[in-house]
Amino acid sequence: MVTMQDVAERAGVTKQTVSNVLSGRVAVRPATAARVRAAIDELGYTPNLVARSLATGSTKTIGLFVPTVVGSFYAELIEEVEDVLEEHGYHLLLCTTRLDGERARRHLAGLTSRSVDALLIAGDNDLIDHLPLLADARFPVVLCAWETETPDRFPVVTIDYERAGYLAGRHIRELGHRKVAVLASPSHAVRIEGFRRAFTADGLTVPESAVHYAPEPTPAGGFEAAAAALAASPEVTALFATHDVLALGALEAAREAGRSVPQDLSVVGHDDTLEVQVARPALTTVSIPKREMARQAIEQLLRAITRSGTQTNSLQLLRPELVVRESTGPAAG
Amino acid sequence: MVTMQDVAERAGVTKQTVSNVLSGRVAVRPATAARVRAAIDELGYTPNLVARSLATGSTKTIGLFVPTVVGSFYAELIEEVEDVLEEHGYHLLLCTTRLDGERARRHLAGLTSRSVDALLIAGDNDLIDHLPLLADARFPVVLCAWETETPDRFPVVTIDYERAGYLAGRHIRELGHRKVAVLASPSHAVRIEGFRRAFTADGLTVPESAVHYAPEPTPAGGFEAAAAALAASPEVTALFATHDVLALGALEAAREAGRSVPQDLSVVGHDDTLEVQVARPALTTVSIPKREMARQAIEQLLRAITRSGTQTNSLQLLRPELVVRESTGPAAG
DNA sequence: CTGAAAGCGCTTACAG
DNA sequence: CTGAAAGCGCTTACAG
Fold first, then answer.
1. In a domain, B328, yes or no
2. Which intervals hold domain HTH lacI-type (chains A, B) (predicted)?
3. Are A278 and B1 inside 8 Å of each other by CB?
4. Strand-pair partners of B123
């Protein structure tokens, strides 16, 4: 491998001068710089980033924890994160936790060895049990897409999930629906709360019995939950799925139950992932500003890297938006 | 940050001894080792991986290029790769190329600085134009899920795509279908070829006009392609989608065209991704051994890392399998 | 504007 | 079984 020293010898300077040419931190006489550049090209030199990292203390890499990469939500988030990172010359070290705390713990231990400059944790899950370990982290940590209680050691960039649920509920209520059910994932309590609030304004309630939990966060899980909901209360005219994937299953369940959407049944999702944009009928859903969330989170992270030590304890809430498509309509009767 | 030197002082030894305790390469007297371990615990020492990398020349990180992470195919592949990597103590640096050669080139340039031990490139695409750069790579490169001509500089672990297409075709042909169409992505020529071969045995042909290219690799793209196919030849009784996502769109298109699947129209997909396992009707598809492919590719990579220099030029073909579900049936009439 | 020196935190032979 | 030395390839003050 060709080193900075090799380039220096070839150009008839010392390696410090080569370093100066490369970094641009110190002015170098044009003629010298040109000789150095020529030597670099001739030798095909590329700097050794590992050596640079050791000297500077920065790896130009950030770690990203996500529960999974299957399913559009996190996949889209990752690509956004990558884009922002690239603008800043950072690389991405990925770890999917699979909702497995032990797995996350092992990876965290690996990262703790200063091989990343910072860590972004997306999605609340079992990880919360392992935050003690995070407290020892030698690098800044930022949390995003966090729905449950946000630990106040770390900056959080997330969505106003309560409002997200509220927007879904208000839309449904304004369409005249009175008997509704919720298809949910266990960790989506805040969205459900917001959804409920939209109804209390009218003196209505969404009882706990109207909330049906999906066995798994997949269309199949949503199918099951929706089938259960419709069987339990056939008079239900609207469904709120706290997750788009669940809504996809709900659309199938409605079809099997012989109820057409939106004439006999309205369905609202949450996330606005790519897959629902092509569902039939196209899904009305609450859109999450993923791009904005990724950008804000990474910027928090980069800020924290620069002025290390002064970890700010901020909570940033991004606003969701209702996207009305074809799966919701006025309540029959 | 606490360093090996700190641990050594605390334990009353030199840092080499600490290094020996940690690596286990050299025997250390139990009493000494115990003192060292105690010091490590008390100080909360974790080794600096960057320094270790500089000394050893290995970063214990591999790079992975995928076209995208949205959509199950690559997402599932990534999680498999991660699993295998973890068994070997490696980290994953991810780069989604978005089929953008320039983007891939930039990332490759970044990696070339020896910050990864090896690179796995999954999915053939514009990258092929940038292979010249790859030739300069200082680390082993392995290709996987490669359908087009496989450049013979690098080991390739891929699927027998010709056979995959053939399996889909044979199934369709055996069900008695004679008028068929193909919904394809541009880079899936090999699958289409295999599909065709299944028909030539019976003296049938699948003309180029029966191949409909999807404007994009999404359900929406599949929808469009299927709608075009059915409009062009209403007598078609079976559809082969070279991509499961396209098949999903085809299912919708059939529904809109008033053709029930599989009674009026059979649909076969390719990939066996998670989303099609919950489609209704459940999709008959060609299953790709993703887990096996990930495992073999990573093992090739690790082997190449160990005995560097002797890059083997092997082509490993994994066999696909037909999975019959509900979307295919005998040709009507 | 350029060079000599020290250091980042580890590992790897090599003596003792 | 333990320690002294050199080196991995860079950067960062500091002189000149």
1. no
2. 2-56
3. no
4. none
